[in-house]
Design brief:
It is a single chain. The chain is 43% helix and 12% strand. The protein has helices at 3-6, 24-30, 34-44, 62-74, 93-99, 103-109; strands at residues 51-52, 78-83, 86-91. 20% of the residues are buried. It has one domain (16-108): Arc Repressor Mutant, subunit A, CATH 1.10.10.10. It is globular.
């Protein structure tokens, strides 16, 4: 039995957005949700590939968390890869900043009283 079979099956690799095709409205929409902002802020304060999806303390279940990461991937904010049984994340800071200069800095320093 392979490790994948022992682990309950094969997981589809995450699909990542081409930032050249991401609109500013898509990016803003992804950042409009408080859970997604929390995920982005925590990733911004963590080294790349050190945070698994389950390591975030957010008030949502696994299915909702998976959806939030999917939205962030689709907006070009997050890159994910499978590392053994875990899916680890990194903020695509450099690439996102090149596409939308200053937007992530504004979001990360906003205090939410806007």
């Amino acid at each position: 039995m392979t490790n994948q079979a022992a682990g309950g099956g094969h997981r589809t690799a995450p699909v990542h957005a081409d930032l050249d095709e991401v609109s500013v409205l898509t990016a803003l929409s992804a950042l409009a949700d408080p859970v997604r902002i929390q995920l982005v802020r925590e990733l911004a304060g963590s080294a790349a590939w050190t945070r698994s999806c389950g390591s975030f303390d957010v008030p949502v279940g696994k299915a909702a968390l998976s959806h939030h990461f999917s939205v962030l991937r689709g907006a070009g904010l997050v890159e994910q890869r499978d590392q053994g049984p875990k899916r680890v994340n990194r903020l695509r800071r450099e690439e996102f900043d090149a596409r939308f200069p200053g937007l992530l800095d504004l979001i990360l320093r906003a205090d939410g009283t806007g």
